[in-house]
Amino acid sequence: MPIPNASAALQSPVPKKTGADPRETAAMRPRNGLKLARMALFTALAAALGFALSGVPNVELVTATVFIAGAVLGPREGALVGAAAEALYTSFHPMGAPPPPLWIAQVLGMSLAGTAGGVWRRFPARSFIRSRFGAAAAGLLCTIAFDLLTTASFAFFLHFDLGQIIRSFIFGVWFTLLHAAANTLIFALFVPVVLARLAAIENGPPGKQTGGCS
Question: pLDDT tens-digit profile of 71-81?
């Protein structure tokens, strides 16, 4: 049996550690904490705006706020903000909490708005999609998706047959059109302006840029 070469064993390279560098982990903590704080701020703001306008029919700022959160923080964070904000708003709505299927549809629909904001920010800043027209189209699509989900869940909760489901969509089309028109206008007028302002605050004065909004 051959005897191991002790000198060769001593000179062999030491296996590298595969764990994360503690210095890198410590450096990431402030950034993660800041992102969590921003998510909490957007969640509270969206829910508060929902309560503030709860008495105004077909006009709400929750969708636009959640979309902006996604554009600032990213699609995953935007989805979480949308779900949390809508869960708060719909659970404590002045007219009472909705039935579970409608509650789930509302939370899911608003999380899609946050995801859409995160996808929207990935396009070049001067592209057509990032223009006012693109923002208006995003508001229209987010609102239609939200209203379709909520209408479908309502029909499911009441065990409608096919004919009743079709009639419920026809009956709710006017609400959807008014809601979509309001959000299309809100997105076109405010979303690009707010995002530009947030980017300016994040980057600071010219020559002192500190990074993006994410």
Answer: 999 999 999 99
Verdict on whether the full-model pTM lies above 0.85: no
Tell me the average pLDDT across 88-100.
91
Judge: domain 34-203, CATH 3.30.565.10: no
For the residues of the chain, what is the DSSP string, one character each? -PPP-HHHHHHSPPPPP-SPPHHHHHHHHHHHHHHHHHHHHHHHHHHHHHHHTTTSTT--SHHHHHHHHHHHH-HHHHHHHHHHHHHHHHHT-TT-PPPHHHHHHHHHHHHHHHHHHHHHTTS-TTSSTTSHHHHHHHHHHHHHHHHHHHHHHHHHHTT--HHHHHHHHHHHHHHHHHHHHHHHHHHHHHHHHHHHHHHHHHH-STT-------
Every domain of the chain and the residues it spans: 34-203
Question: Across residues 138-144, what is the average pLDDT?
Answer: 97
The predicted pLDDT at position 208 comes to 52
Asked whether the beta carbons of 209 and 191 are under 8 A apart, the reply is: no
Burial of 85 (0-12, 13-18, 19+ CB in 10 A): buried
